[in-house]
Amino acid sequence: MVRDDEGAQLQRDDAKYELDPQAASTLVDESVRQAQRTFNTWPPLLLLLGSVLFPLALGEVWWSVRSQHPYHGPTGGALTLMYSIIVVWAITVSSVVRHATRGIGGRSMRQRKIEGIGFAGLWIAVYVFQYALLHAGASPSITYGIYPATAPFIFVGSAFAISSAQREDWPKVFVALPMVAIAVVASFMGPVLDWLVVGIGLGALLFALGVGQLLQG
Predict the structure, then answer these.
(1) Could you give the 3-state DSSP secondary structure of residue 130?
(2) Is the CB of residue 211 less than 8 Å from the CB of residue 181?
(3) Distances (CA, A) of 211 to 27, 50, 93, 99
(4) Rounded to whole angstroms, how far apart are CA atoms 15 and 24?
C-alpha cells in the first residue's frame, strides 16, 4: 500500500512538471526569437556614428565635383577619404558584432561566414564591372559618377535583402530595401547630386536604425 501511494505521488509530481506540447512549442519559438534579437543586433552607438560619417564621407565627394563642367569625376583625395571612413567604420562594426557572438558555433555561424565571403565577392565584382564600363567607353558621368555612387548599394543591398528574407529576418529586410530605394532614387539625380543624396539617405537610415536599437535595449 505504501509503495502504491509513493507511485501515485510520483505520477502526480511528474504531471505537475510535465510541459504541455503547445507551451513547449511557444517556449522554443520565443527562445529562437530572443536568440535572433541577441545575435542580429547591431551596435546602436556605432550606427549613430555612421549616420554622421556617411553624409560627411559622401558629402566630401559631392563637394569635390559640385562645380565640374564637364564632369570628370571625384578627386583622388575625396575618394580616399570616403573609402577610408566607410571601410574603417564597417570593420569596426563587424568586429563588435563578431566579439558579441564569440563562442557561438553551429550552422548559423557557418552560414554567416559563407554569406560574408559572398558579399565581399559581390562588392569586388561591382567595382570590376566599373572598369569594364570604362573599357567599353562609357562617359565619366557613368563610370565615375552615377555607377560608383549607387550601384554598390543597389546590388549588395538587394542581395542582403534576399538573404535576410530567406532566413525570415524581416528587420534586416526592412533595412536593406530602403538602402536600395535610396540608391535607385539617387541614380536619377545625375553624377553630382547623387553622391549627396546617397550620403544623406544612408545617414538618415542608420540614424533610424540606431535609435530603434536603443529603444529596444
Answers:
(1) helix
(2) no
(3) 29, 12, 16, 22
(4) 15
Question: Cell numbers of 110, please?
Answer: 557557418
Strand ranges (DSSP E) for 80-189? none
Could you write out the three-class secondary structure of 24-51?
HHHHHHHHHHHHHHHHCCCCHHHHHHHH
Sorted by sequence, the CB contacts under 8 Å of residue 60 that are 6+ apart come out as: 78, 81, 82
Q: Which three cell numbers stand for residue 13?
A: 509530481
Q: Rounded distance, CA 143 to CA 148, Å?
A: 7
DSSP 167: T
Nearest CA-CA partner of 89 in 40, 121, 54, 59: 54
Burial 193-208 (b: 16+ CB within 10 A, else e): bbbbbbbbbbbebbbe
Q: What is the pLDDT of residues 187-200, one digit of tens each?
A: 999 999 999 999 99
DSSP symbols for 77-94:
HHHHHHHHHHHHHHHHHH
pLDDT in tens, 34-84: 444 444 567 899 999 999 999 999 999 999 999 998 999 999 999 999 999
Contacts of 201 (CB under 8 A, 6+ apart): 178, 182, 183, 185, 186
Alpha-carbon gap, residue 148 to 57, rounded angstroms: 14
